[in-house]
Automatic annotation (TrEMBL):
This is Rhodanese domain-containing protein. It comes from the Bacteria. Gene3D superfamilies: Rhodanese-like domain. Residues 14-64 form the Rhodanese domain.
Length: 67
């Protein structure tokens, strides 16, 4: 179930084994991303998530727009 979390909660989730997913384009991902995050553009999320992610672990999806 989706839930908004703040930075502190993201850090705690990450320490507990959550996966970080950046949903911007690959070009934007290469400019800046959180350490350990994987690039999974929003348009590909539905089709590739099951292949790339371990669905038994929590997933934190974020979109960092540096404009």
């Amino acid at each position: 179930m989706p839930k908004a979390v703040d930075r502190r909660e993201v850090m705690a989730l990450r320490e507990a084994g959550a996966q970080l997913v950046e949903v911007l384009s690959r070009e934007e991902y290469e400019l800046e991303y959180l350490p350990g995050a994987v690039s999974l553009p929003l348009r590909e999320l539905g089709g590739r998530a099951r292949v790339i992610l371990d669905l038994s672990r929590p997933v934190v999806v974020y979109c960092h727009n540096h404009q």
